[in-house]
Write a structure and sequence with these properties.
Elements lengths: L4 H9 L1 H7 L1 H13 L9 H14 L1 H7 L6 H19 L1 E9 L8 E9 L18 H19 L5 H12 L5 H7 L5 H12 L6 H16 L5 H19 L12 H13 L1
Length: 273
């Protein structure tokens, strides 16, 4: 079966189910393109997601006719979603008419000019976002948006989420719980879990190499493999690069890098647990 076939079937026979399937993508695009950038307030997020969904369903026949049947459907549909967000972005401007007097004394006519402004201006996250003053409402709103978007990206891992959570918590120095470990594999010997939990309790004086070693021991015990610490390092780097790419999606200029993404990870787990 082609990778496109399930989506094409839904597009033709059950478009509502197709849109539900892509809802997490819609949510993250709305947050990144409309909320974080300041076109709408965070409180408007759910309404804007629903507007995108409604627009997609209304145009489902046009979408069906415009698909060429050859390109990757997910890429095609994501572009459609993006276009919907761009349309809403245009609505996110407030319009002001300004009157100016021509400087030419022979022609003192009043000239009307239309200018456009974002309805809301939020401060973009910087490397030091985690030190944001709690009284700074705009920055707090931006951080909430980023954390929600981070949660969307994390949920996209589906079956791999337990593994990703363990890796990200360990790398950021946030304590890994027994529940985290047992979600990955609940049939290991107790001391296997103890090693990871105790490492994270005393992670301040440990290096990344120490973390890779502990994780490789854990995954090897659970999966009956012989994975080297360097293999775990490469695996974690791939995860980090994916998160950076996803978090920087449609963000101009890109905000995240390998340095500040660690801070966001720790901040996320501090809020979520």
């Amino acid at each position: 079966m082609s990778v496109n076939e399930p989506d094409i079937f839904l597009l033709k026979n059950n478009p509502k189910k197709l849109v539900v399937k892509y809802k997490s993508v819609i949510e993250k695009m709305v947050v990144k393109t409309l909320v974080v950038t300041g076109y709408f307030q965070y409180q408007d997020k759910d309404d804007k997601v629903q507007e995108v969904i409604t627009g997609l369903l209304q145009d489902i026949d046009k979408i069906w006719k415009s698909y060429n049947g050859y390109s990757k459907f997910s890429s095609f549909f994501i572009k459609i979603i993006m276009n919907r967000c761009i349309e809403l972005k245009r609505k996110g401007y407030r319009q002001e008419t300004m009157e100016t007097v021509d400087n030419n004394p022979d022609n003192p006519a009043v000239e009307k000019r239309v200018r456009y402004f974002k309805k809301h201006e939020y401060t973009q996250l910087s490397d030091g976002y985690q030190q944001t003053d709690g009284n700074d409402t705009d920055k707090e709103t931006t951080i909430v948006s980023e954390l929600e978007y981070f949660d969307v990206v994390l949920r996209m891992y589906v079956k791999r989420k337990p593994e990703v959570v363990i890796c990200l918590k360990t790398l950021s120095g946030y304590p890994v719980s027994y529940d985290d470990l047992k979600l990955y594999n609940n049939s290991c010997e107790p001391f296997i879990y103890d090693n990871v939990v105790n490492f994270n309790k005393n992670a301040k004086n440990k290096t990344k190499e120490d973390a890779y070693k502990v994780l490789s021991d854990f995954f090897n015990s659970c999966d009956k493999t012989d994975r080297k610490p360097d293999a775990v390092r490469k695996r974690i780097n791939i995860i980090l690069e994916d998160f950076i790419e996803q978090m920087n999606f449609v963000s101009i200029p890109p905000v995240y890098n390998k340095r500040n993404i660690i801070g966001l990870i720790g901040f996320y787990f501090d809020k979520k647990g």
